[in-house]
Amino acid sequence: MGDLNGFLERCEEVREAAESMSSPLIVNHYDADGIASGALIRRALALRGIQARNWTVKRLSQEEIALLKREKELIFADLGGGQLDLVETLDAKIVIIDHHQTRDSSMLQVNPHLFGYDGGSELSSSGCGYFVFRNPELVQLGVVGAVGDMQFPLHGLNRIMLEEGMKNGIVVASRDLAIFGRMSRPLLWFLQYCTEPFLPGLTGKKANCALFLEELGIPLKEGEEWRRYYQLSHDEKVRLVSGLVAYLYAKGADAQTVESLVGEVYSFPKEQIGTEFSDANEYATVLNACGRHGKPEVGLGVCLKEESALKQSSELLVLHRRQLREAVQFACEAVEDFGVFHFLDARNVIDDTIVGVVAGMLYGSAIKRTKPILAFALNEEKKVKVSGRATRRLVDDGLNLGTVMKKASEGIGAGGGHDIAAGAQLEKGVDEFLLRCGEIIQSQLASSA
After folding, report:
1. Would you give the distance in Å from CA 434 to the centre of its chain?
2. For residues 400 and 409, what is the distance between their CA atoms, to the nearest angstrom?
3. Shared domain check, 199 and 141
4. Is 290 part of a structural domain of the chain?
């Protein structure tokens, strides 16, 4: 059990410090949680009459720190906690709102890890930002960030945030089919473009999907309009879920993959129904698409309700989902078993901005959940970017990928992150890194056996 009172007191300290700033620069990460938290903080400050700016970055290294030397007021969102050695070199008024593994510091930071909560599963950076400012309307971005960071079903501090949002009519939680696109996609695309979970024989196969729905007795159209999942009757939804369960078992899927079809989903009743922004998972995927395809400003614009950003975000979403499908198809064939972990070498094939997402998607379709997976890609500087993903069961058994990445990259790069998802960038020594990872993973899991 975490120290809730201590956490909330620190949130108040951070809020007061942020409110004392005149024109801060918000430095936020480029993924869904980073963009959501950056936008949430900017909106919260605007409500208080403070005009802030955003700078979205893929990482926080010495190069980025050098560019911040002239700034006098800084708010770090979804990063900073894991890079304290760098942040502490800055001469500025600084607050850090983060959820990655960190340590105590003279810097003013709010982070669930400092108060006995797991930042990898119980609170994201955007959720942290919500508790700092506590404006009711900002809970939407808090939920979006948590879902984007794969922290569902929401529990811990996330649950407190969710319940406040439900009480204020901002968010609705229900148990339903959890496939992406239940609000915005026509039924045919809903199945054809499904990648989580990957549906062998259906994903990417339009004709097969049409036949599957026809055999279930579910019409694709109502008059001239394409039907969407949320428009189905209760009986049709039951038939579809039952049909997918039977189909996946017939294709050899494991029980956990099949069970993942149904889960707690989160919708926003004040958004226009049938749009990506009425569902937390779809909203988060839009932000991921913007950030991971070099257009984080579009994602920020969406969160800030800028009309011009909506059309651009839809185009980026189409690109993002297509690249994910193609990448998963490659990864299913290319992933290897390296003994204590699975390995995917996607250098020159999968973009470094999505390789971590793809690695996580392989669980249940191409790899078993009994080992973590490490994936390689090349970044824009042609350096090796490593993404590690694990399961909650592995973490419970003692695995901490953040520690693995940090220790294995010492002297040959830099790494860190969460216990369940982490990353590194390597300057050299690829083989040495893999050997170190194997030894550290083996040691972590053996020590808890």
Report:
1. 25
2. 14
3. no
4. no
449: its two tokens? 């056996």
User: Based on the domain organization, do 8 and 148 belong to the same domain?
Assistant: yes
Residue-wise pLDDT for 70-126, tens only, equals 999 999 999 999 899 999 999 999 999 999 989 999 999 999 999 999 999 999 999
Q: What is the pLDDT of residue 448?
A: 66
Interior angle at CA 139, CA 136 and CA 141, nearest 5 = 135
Query: Would 269 be classed as within a structural domain?
Result: no
pLDDT in tens, 370-403: 999 999 999 988 999 999 999 888 999 999 999 9
Q: Which of 133, 154, 175 is the last residue of a domain?
A: 154
Is there a single domain that holds both residue 103 and residue 189? no
Of residues 407, 370, 340, 402, the one with CA closest to residue 121: 402
Give the whole-angstrom CA distance, residue 62 versus residue 59.
10
- Whether 147 and 190 map to the same domain: the answer is no
Q: Indicate if 242 and 375 belong to the same structural domain.
A: no
The residues, ordered by sequence, that sit 6+ positions from 69 with a Cβ below 8 Å of its Cβ are: 90, 91
Give the separation between CA 334 and CA 343, rounded to whole angstroms: 9
Pairing of strands 421-426, 373-378: unpaired
Choose among 183, 179, 126: nearest CA to 151: 126
> What is residue 154's DSSP assignment?
P
Angle at which helices 296-303 and 307-334 cross, to 10°: 130
Whether residue 193 sits in one domain with residue 72:
no
Residue pair 385/376 in contact (Cβ under 8 Å)? The answer is yes
Q: What's 198's DSSP letter? A: B
pTM of the model: 0.85
- Are residue 143 and residue 197 in the same domain, yes or no? no
Domain of 113? 4-154
CATH number at residue 76: 3.90.1640.30
Tokens for 309?
């950003």
Give me the number of domains the chain comprises.
Answer: 3
Strands (E), 312-382: 336-337, 342-345, 373-378
Residue 95, beta-bridge partner list: 75, 108
Placement of tokens 């550290």 in the chain: 440
**Of 113, 132, 154, the domain-final residue:** 154
Q: How many CA atoms lie within 13 A of 201 on its CB side?
A: 11
Q: Which residue has the tokens 């560019």?
A: 67
Per-residue pLDDT tens digits for 282-334 = 999 999 999 989 999 999 999 999 988 988 998 898 888 888 889 988 999 99
**CA atoms within a 13 Å half-sphere pointing along the CA-CB vector of 128:** 37
Domain-embedded: residue 284: no
Say if residue 153 is preceded by a cis peptide, omega within 30 of 0: yes
